[in-house]
Specification:
With about 170 residues, this protein is of the alpha+beta class. It has a single domain, classed as Cyclic phosphodiesterase (Cyclic Phosphodiesterase, Chain: A, Alpha-Beta Complex). It is about 25% helix and about 40% strand. A hairpin with a 2-residue loop joins strand 4 and strand 5. It is globular, with a radius of gyration of 16 Å. The two termini are about 30 Å apart. The mean pLDDT is about 95.
Length: about 170
């Protein structure tokens, strides 16, 4: 099964308004509100998710808060495929490091390309000025401060209407 590790983000009014604004563009596919999360690690195909969950549950990390603010894009402004909201918190980096360290004992190499973000939408074709205007106008917009009390191991099933995520297990923070 296809799996990843993430932090669930509960959408508030500001995030839902941004999703609605982006969703009005015919070439954009927004993330469903119930699928909003900050990816800590994509694992790909996994044979034994219970083993991964057991290793992750050995992580001891304190609860923290993260600020969701501003808009960014992947891979870059010249070629936009993903629009995301930024995540500000040194603790997100610390938790990511702990996750990577725990996964190393299962043979997963560290992932050094981590950019904490909340994916808002995927762009299906070359964007026009409307998307660039949204990104420019909301580039520094404050969305919320989110308490982080747990992270999750998810199964991801790709479907025509979009991915479907199922929680395999949760790891509580201290």
């Amino acid at each position: 099964m296809r799996c990843f590790i993430g932090i669930r983000v509960e959408p508030n009014k500001e995030i839902l308004q941004e999703l609605d604004k982006l969703g009005r563009l015919e070439y954009v596919k927004t993330v469903k509100p119930e699928n909003l999360q900050v990816d800590l690690r994509f694992l790909g195909e996994v044979d034994d998710p219970d083993r991964i969950l057991t290793v992750l549950q050995g992580i001891r990390f304190k609860k923290f808060s993260m600020t969701i603010k501003g808009l960014g894009v992947f891979p870059g402004h010249g070629f936009i495929r993903v629009v995301w909201a930024g995540v500000e918190s040194q603790d997100v980096y610390g938790l990511k490091k702990e996750v990577d360290s725990a996964l190393q004992e299962l043979g997963y190499p560290p992932d050094n390309r981590f950019v904490p973000h909340l994916t808002l939408c995927r762009v299906k074709r070359k964007p026009d000025e409307r998307l660039r205007t949204i990104i420019r106008e909301d580039g520094q917009k404050f969305f919320k401060v989110q308490p982080v009390e747990e992270f999750r191991l998810y199964q991801s099933v790709l479907k025509r209407e979009g991915p479907e995520y199922t929680v395999i297990g949760r790891v509580n923070l201290e």
